[in-house]
Amino acid sequence: MNDESHMPSNAAGGHGASVEPVLIAKGISKFFPGVIALDNVDFEIRPGEVNALLGENGAGKSTLIKIMSGFYKPDRGEIRVNGKHLDADPAAAHRAGVATIHQEAHLVPSMTVAENIMLGHWPSSRFGVIAKKEQTQRALEVLARVAPELSPSTLARRLSPADGQLVEIARALSENSRVLIMDEPTTSLSSREIDRLFEIVDSLKSKGLGIVFVSHWLEEVFRIADRITVLRDSKFIGTRPAAELDHAKVIQMMVGRDVEEVTTSGREPGKVVLEVKNLTHIGVLQNISFNIRAGEIVTLAGLVGAGRSEVANCIFGIDPYEEGEVRLNGKVVAPNDPTAAIQAGIGLLPEDRRRQALVAQLSVGTNTTLAVLDLIAPRWMILKDLESKIIREAQSSLAIKMASPAVKISTLSGGNQQKVVLARWLARKPSLLILDEPTKGVDIGAKAEISEIIVRLVAQGTAILLISSELPEVLGLSDRVLVMRSGRIVGEISRGSLSQELIMRYATTG
Amino acid sequence: MNSNAQKTSAPQPGLPGKVRTSNKSMVEILEDLGLVVILVIGSILLGLASPVFFSRINIENLLFTSTIIAVVSIGEAFVIMVAGIDLSVGAVLALSSVMCVGLAVNQGLPVWLAALIAIGLGALVGLINGLAVTRLKIPALIATLAMMSIARGLAFIYSGGRNIAPIPDIYDNIQAARLFGIPVIILLTIVVAIIAHFVLSSTRFGREIYATGGNPIAATLSGIRADRVIITAYVISGIAAALGGLMITARLEAGAATAGFGMELTVISAAVIGGVSLFGGEGKIGSVLLGVLLLGLVQNAINLLNVPPNYDYVVSGLVIGLAAAVDVFRRNIAEAGARRRSAQVKKEQAGNAPKAAKSH
Questions:
Q1: Where residue B92 sits, what CATH number does that domain have?
Q2: Is residue A376 situated within a structural domain?
Q3: Which of A377, B177, B304, B315 could pair with A382 in a Cys bridge, judged by C-beta atoms 3.0 to 4.6 Å apart?
């Protein structure tokens, strides 16, 4: 199968090489507050090729896609389509021939396929009455290219994920589309559906479209890509023909070589703190079992969607589970009840700080003590002295930079916000602290500080369950790494034999 | 190379240099002052237009008529602070009014017991509202709209659509009573407001209200039982509305099933004018009272300036709209100021980290 799909790809790639690129991104840099999202990145896409864009989470792929499709304005560099400068305007990008399929589906479930395809451009009479016949007709024309078998009158909510994907492609493509950007189009598809998607990609390619394909799955990438481009740490690493690469080489490009080992040596793990036995959440997690000892950092590694956060959510009582049990210090932790989990001695630093951890309307101080209300208000009145003492201690021990504890939490930088969320738990002295992407969206300085705090915590005997997509962080901090894929633990790597390559191998193919 | 950046940039985690506290509180003072300024200017204008305005009788009357709205608004504020809404307060007030009189006059219960049952009914209605919103996940607007109809209907059924009168003497007595020359009803309202303020500012439950309203997910993940907090807020609103029912009974000298018609909109307006965010998580009782006073002032102006009664609603609506617009404007300014300041703080703190990152 591999061979079959490779043959035409190479042919097309060879043909494309002699042609001017249809889209060129030159010297693109993009800065967000405290973060460099892209640093002088070059990228090009030729007609009739699939250029796979790869990189770890946070390497800058999404930002580059958003710049190419006109959603973001690059701070440096420029995008040229067909030799013409492209302004940062999604509508202009679409007119210029750049069609983008974003990661999340954007169909309106209550509308028909035809209405979705014509979304916002419904053909209508003078009085705003939608011309149904014309709408159906035009939808059929558009569908003919990618999914002739779909009926325009089907409701979008009745479509399978794959058909939904096709409708989105149909909608994105217009008469003059030259480039199709697909951001992880296969994440919700079955293998048969992926085959079908790839057939369509091949046919679009043969019509001369340049295709940008983003995926975490190397198998897929090698099936479909003519060339592979790798980004790492916001930088351009290289674009090479797929035929010259293999899994190992790509992984090496993705993770780089020089990695600092922030060793946490010399720790003797204590007694078992957390026991997870046969945890199963149907359709999400299967048979998850592991232990964590006092003073030990166990990391769940794997790609986005492998089920790492879901494990954390089940332990902490956010998500229910059908089978298995969680014990903390020997006692069963009641399922599906975060309050019970907290009282048992578990803390969680959630992945999405803004959505899951911060109360934007409240002050830094109030956010700091949010998880210790039972301690600062043993009856029902808040002991303000005790509260300000806790806030002061947190501020000095975690070096939280703020104008005063009375300012709103939203005025702090990402790193300082994260420290506030950490402080919330430290005041409880939990036996187990779950850290889900603790350094996501924080700048480099704060990253190092947060790592130091983690090290300090384990030295005091806290058991830590770490979830991180940052491999250097995983390597530096973990005593053991459990690699997850598709809701299972597919490998356990002890500190001695830990390497980025090994983790990536388990995560992508294991 | 990355590792180097990390090393060089790893900041010296010392204490923050200077702790600034003044700026923020200035903004807060300004925020609160906004309404006060509107009230003062409004009063002066009205005083110029009608000399009667500053008479003791008129001021007392203004405050007195504001008490019922104030009590019900305070309850409503709790619900809005948890990002809910309670449309049933006017109907609960009516139900409480007919019950507290009817149970005493028709069923012969002691007056205090009848009043207690009326309050209990208010709490029960709140409990059902809260359960419908949290457990059944019915949108608050719909759940309390249904409850509004049911409670109003029950009031009509119980009273047969007629006012129940005469009322027990004690209501008249309380209505007329004065302490230090001030009507007891006004003092009572102030006590209710102080308790509510204390609960919100100084108790665990108050924190839980703000946290749940601001971000229910974050609250839950911090160990707060958000559903319980929301239910309790609705119960408080029900109790406050029922208390308003007792008060209106004294004023109307009857248990009236038609009492408080449309009051839900008035109290929601008062709360929102008083800075309670409809998105939840924000609001202060003191400001809610200012909102109530502003609405009372408008009503007073309509009376004093002899605005034809038919214009009443339009004028009230315009003032509510205007006050809300001024409020949004004022908040945008405050927010822009906060953003500027935080940008400054970040710049000051910027230190080596971003530089180190850029140099690679």
A1: 1.10.3470
A2: no
A3: A377
DSSP state letter for A392: H
- At A464, is the secondary structure helix, strand, or coil? strand
Q: Is B250 left (phi over 0), alpha (psi -120 to 50) or beta?
A: alpha
Q: Is B343 domain-assigned?
A: no
Q: Is A356 on the interface with B (CB under 8 A)?
A: yes
Task: Tell me how far apart the alpha carbons of residues B52 and B68 are, in angstroms, rounded to a whole number.
Answer: 23
Both A213 and A239 in one domain: the answer is yes
Joined tokens for residue B359: 């140099």
Show Cβ contacts of residue A323 under 8 Å, excluding neighbours closer than 6 positions: A278, A279, A280
- Residues constituting chain A: 510
CA dist., res. B192 & res. A304, Å (int): 52
Same domain, A11 and A101: yes
- Closest chain A residue to B222, measured at CA: A371
Q: Taking a contact as any Cβ pair under 8 Å apart, which residues of chain A between 445 and 504 contact chain B?
A: 445-449, 452, 472
Residue B16 lies in a domain: no
Is residue B29 in a domain?
A: no
A247 and A265 housed in the same domain: no
Q: Is pLDDT of A216 > 90?
A: no
Query: Cis bond leading into B51, ω under 30°?
Result: no
Residue A140 near chain B (CB below 8 Å): no
CA distance B306 to B49: 11
The first and second tokens of residue B120, run together, are 């209990």
Question: Does one domain contain both A202 and A93?
Answer: yes
Q: How many CA atoms lie within 13 A of A210 on its CB side?
A: 24
Closest CA to A439 of A422, A425, A456: A422
Domain count, chain B: 1
Torsion angle of C-alpha atoms B61, B62, B68, B69, degrees rounded to 10: 170
Helical (H) or strand (E) element with A79: strand A76-81
CATH code of residue A85: 3.40.50.300
Domain that holds residue A117: 108-158
Asked if the C-beta of B61 comes within 8 angstroms of chain A's C-beta atoms, the answer is: no
Phi, psi (degrees; rounded to nearest 5) at B9: -90, -15
Same domain, A93 and A15: yes
Lowest mean per-residue pLDDT among A6-15, A150-159, B323-332:
A6-15
Q: Are A222 and A5 in contact (CB under 8 A)?
A: no
Sign of CA dihedral A405, A410, A413, A414: positive
Asked if the C-beta of A318 comes within 8 angstroms of chain B's C-beta atoms, the answer is yes
- By the CB < 8 Å criterion, does A380 face chain B? yes
Q: Say what the ipTM of the complex is.
A: 0.79
Nearest CA in chain B to A30: B358
Cα–Cα dist B196/B310, whole Å = 36
Q: Is residue A103 part of a domain?
A: yes
pTM for the full model? Answer: 0.74
Residue A328 near residue A344, CB atoms below 8 Å: yes
Tokens of B11: 């900041």
How far out from the chain centre does Cα B164 lie? 30
- A360-390 as b/e, with b when 16 or more CB fall inside 10 Å? ebbbbbbbbbbbbbeebbeeeebeeeebeeb
How many CB atoms within 10 Å of residue B36?
14
Partnered with residue A26 across adjacent β-strands are A78
B45 in a structural domain: yes
Q: What's the domain range around B247?
A: 41-334
Phi/psi of residue A260, each to 5°? -80, 135
* Angle at alpha carbon of residue A500, lines to A498 and A506, rounded to 5°: 85
Question: What amino acid occupies position A465?
Answer: L
List pLDDT tens digits, range B136-185. 999 999 999 999 999 999 999 999 989 998 999 999 999 889 899 889 99
Q: pLDDT tens, A339-363?
A: 999 999 999 999 888 899 999 989 9
- Cβ of A444 within 8 Å of Cβ of B9? The answer is yes
- Whether residues A97 and A183 share a domain: the answer is yes
